Amino acid sequence: MAFKNYVLVCGGTACDSSHGIELTQNLKKEIEAAGLKNEVQIVRTGCLGFCEKGPIVKILPENTFYVTVKPGDAKEIVQEHLLKGRVVDRLLYARDPKKSLVSVDEIDFYQKQYRIVLRNCGVIDPDKIDEYIARDGYLALEKALFEMKPADVVDEITQSGLRGRGGAGFPTGRKWGFAAAQPHGQKYMICNADEGDPGAYMDRSTLEGDPHSILEAMTIGGYSIGANKGYIYIRAEYPLAIKRLETAIAAAHDYGLLGQNILGSGFDFEIEIRLGAGAFVCGEETALLASIEGDRGMPRPRPPFPAVKGLWGHPTIINNVETLANIPVILLKGAEWFGKIGTADTKGTKVFALTGKVNNSGLIEVPMGTTLREIIFDIGGGIREGREFKAAQTGGPSGGIIPPQFLDTPIDFGSLAQIGSIMGSGGLIVMDETDCIVDIVKFYLDFTVDESCGKCAPCRIGGRKLLTYLARICDGRGQLKDIDSMQKISEAMTRASLCGLGQTASNPVVSSLKYFKDEYLEHINDNKCRSGKCKKLVTYTIVADKCVGCTVCARNCPVDAIAGTVKKPHVIDQATCIKCGVCFEKCKFDAITRT
Amino acid sequence: MSKLTLDSLRKLREEKKQTIALRDSENKDVQIIIGMGTCGIAAGAKQTFGAIIDAISEKKMMNVLVRQTGCMGLCHSEPTVEVVAPDMPIVIYGNVNADVAREIIEKHVIGRQLLDNHICDKPAIDIV
């Protein structure tokens, strides 16, 4: 007998870390206890995207969407919903407290999304190759191997207008064409899964939720450029993704969808996993190649480009995870179909990891051309605690800081470059009025200085200098001329650095100086940080007239810096104060000022 | 597992498509709702449910959504099955055992004809 209900439990890393594994075990136990073992199937899927409200449980075919489900809720779901057919209201997602929403279709978070890359994420069990096959998996490979010549595949991808999703946006079809044009012989197909931007987890989720789509795409790529060997370069910090990839590779081998003479076509293809040790620079393609070869992960000058001279000197195509995930769909639905999605500049969709001060953080996929406002306010549900939107940051440490006036810019590679940022791999961090722009920029520079490989001087020395200036400004020791120096260094780094890391490291500096210069000036001229983040520039004082002597501040101060007796005005000892701001938040009488 | 050939891959895909289609709620125009309250289950609603699922898997019908609900209030005629099909009146069938269930799929859903001798009621209009 077929199952009457399917319980989809999100098996992404985010949900797992909020007791998703325990929840699954409890559900299993309860289902067995209720005698529903043969009627209900539990499916551990990839990331459903709505990470803010995880763990997520979706019940099919009703399409009921339960959020923030705790392991202890398993019994109620089984007893009420699965056994008696009654929806558990208290676990439904509620947009406003009065009205909870039953079906996924009603949730704003999913309304504006369009899922190509994440098509199977949260639908299939990533560990079951049969489920991937049932959703037209390996159909594109079939089509490529038996109905198309390698050159046809390259043409189709070129015509679709697909651009690399790793950051730079180079047309994928053209890249494949370069490698295909090289003389026959050893060639390689590499999947770059060295996702390293702070706050970005698109690729991890795709690999965890739909590993076979990447294997299929790499095999198609191998066929079209004439490569028989593929590598997936993935960070060792992604254990779940690695495990699912290993399972997927073994299953594909068993089915003969990898290995020799695939489906009897005569085409051979093997895929191996290579683990990176968590160096950000290894996401740069030439550094990645060095790392696979066993050398230190350092970039080399290009040309020659890897498509001509790559791994061990052989033509090599390196594609990002998200780029690859698009390939099977393009072959199935055609270049024309794909070309209709997105903007003139960039076709298709983009997956973003939406994080920061936004209500619904999570993993989203939207058509290119969607505006930041739609992403942050419609999908993301606006800023936390009703605060004011201050800025958005795309592209991680290589991206720029986008001010509110560009909220309505349709996002694609071109438009983001115009406003001084980059698409990057898809991290999207939202900031509100409590964030200090200078402090954020300092954070990013700290990251790039840490991750710079040190091979070329502009990146190694320039980054360090920028960080010194930024630290100085945050400490209240900044000078006006520092701004000029920072601008000069930034330009030199952009022009002269060897690889993308150094060339883009100054983007946060340049864009913030352009749109948030007043904040830098406030730090330098007035020794003031409006958000209170730069601790050395902040002084908390108690206004004696307003203080009623309730002692709340004194009791909450972690370092006992506040003295005073009950019903008498209190005083902060500035020498002891660590500027944590707890007193400022706790005071109910607005008697504490921050200057 | 032996290696797949082109044909066996296609066969496997067709087979699995059906099972995964049962999960999907999109692109379905026919809804079959089975009363699975205590009364329904006691009267054999589980067997009815199984017969319906098996019948639509057998006939490879992708457009049917099967779901369960609680007691419809027609406890005297359990198991009850409500069928919502386009351009047809919504009806509730009563006393649906496995045989009647198969008949519903064949005559009502595929043949687009009501099963006169099993109609029990039409759904009550909700008073909100």
Question: How far from one another are the termini of chain A?
Answer: 70 Å
CATH C-level class of the largest domain in chain A: Alpha Beta
Strand content of chain A: 5-15%
Rounded to the nearest angstrom, the radius of gyration of chain B is 16 Å
Q: Largest beta sheet of chain B, briefly?
A: 5 strands, mixed
Instruction: Give the SSE string of chain B.
Output: HEHHEEEHE
Judged by helices, strands and strand pairing, the structural class of chain B is alpha+beta
Q: Could you name the CATH homologous superfamily of chain B?
A: Glutaredoxin
Helix content of chain B: 25-40%
Total domain units of chain B? 1
What order do the strands of the largest sheet of chain A run in, or round the barrel if closed? 12-11-15-13-14
Task: Name the CATH homologous superfamily of the largest domain in chain A.
Answer: NADH-ubiquinone oxidoreductase 51kDa subunit
Terminus-to-terminus distance of chain B: 57 Å
Assigned CATH architecture of chain B: 3-Layer(aba) Sandwich
SS element count, helices of chain B:
4
Task: List the uncertain runs of chain A.
Answer: none
Q: What is the typical, i.e. mean, pLDDT of chain B? A: 83
The amount of beta strand of chain B, in percent, is 15-25%
